[in-house]
Amino acid sequence: MNHRNRLNVVIVNFRTPGIAINCVKSVLALEVATPEDIVVVDNASPDDSYVQLRSGLPSGVRLIRASQNRGFGAGVNLGMAAGTHENVLVLNPDTYFVDSSLEKALDTLDADPTIGLVGLDLTNPDGSRQYSARRFYSVLDIVGRRTSLGRSHLLRKRLTEHMMVDSWTPGLPFDAEWVMGTGFVVRRHLFEELSGMDEAYFLYMEDVDLCARIWRAGFRVVCVPGARLVHEHQRQSARSLVNSASRYHIKSLLRFRNKFRVPLTFPPGVNGLAK
Fold first, then answer.
1. 272 located within any domain
2. Mind listing the pLDDT tens digit for each residue in 225-268?
3. What is the average pLDDT across 140-165?
């Protein structure tokens, strides 16, 4: 099925104009969307990002300059408002496509109206998988992800379960409790009914929150193996509690816990999120 002309693409940039331009070029090279259906939001970058984007983006691509940086979720919401198509692909700027396998994700979404959001198969540049599907958190999962205790035998097994590693093996679309916001496709009408991303999260957890609300609204979140998106980023908030990324992550975790149930030891699952 040809999805060109039926898909908006939203990319939020903050101080990374070069890789954002490369991301856009990969979208155009593989005819994922037309230039007019791509929206790049510069999230009030304090450098010359906007100038570089204005001169470097291919003709027809829409560029929006946020008046202030109110966080990643706010940037996505701003880009969403500039489009009209029902399906919207949200990408981090440090991603790019290398083939046309996105069609698998779009076909999966089109085939099942119970699916609200589809996560892509994130890979490193060498082709290894980043395991972009996750289970909702327990406190024990958070400890394992953020401290050296995650290297213990017991927590290593828990982290494998948290990252849904075994779900990818059959190579078929599967229900994920939440997916990384690095690359996903969402139905516009559902996104708008849920009032978009929660802008109270400045950075991190806005993707977990969105997926939780999608499940709560009666729709599913699905991951599609083989719908490949290359992601070059390395996680900055892992294994440290003192850097700025970690502080943002902890603050966002606390907000999520105020909205949804985060049990002490066992993950809540989709049905156990309500407080």
1. no
2. 999 999 997 554 444 445 677 788 889 999 999 999 999 999 99
3. 84
Q: Is the pLDDT of residue 69 over 50?
A: yes
Number of domains observed in the structure of the chain: 1
Instruction: Let me know if residue 177 belongs to a domain.
Output: yes
Instruction: Tell me the whole-structure pTM to 2 decimals.
Output: 0.94
Q: In whole angstroms, what is the distance from residue 159 CA to residue 145 CA?
A: 7
Residue 1 counted as domain residue: no
For residue 190, the domain's CATH number is 3.90.550.10
Judging by DSSP bridges, how do beta strands 183-187 and 87-91 pair with one another? Answer: antiparallel
Binning pLDDT at 50, 70 and 90, where does residue 97 land?
very high
Q: What is the pLDDT averaged over residues 92-97?
A: 98
Residue span of the structural domain in which 96 resides? 7-267
Average pLDDT (185-203) is: 97
Residue 273 maps to a domain: no
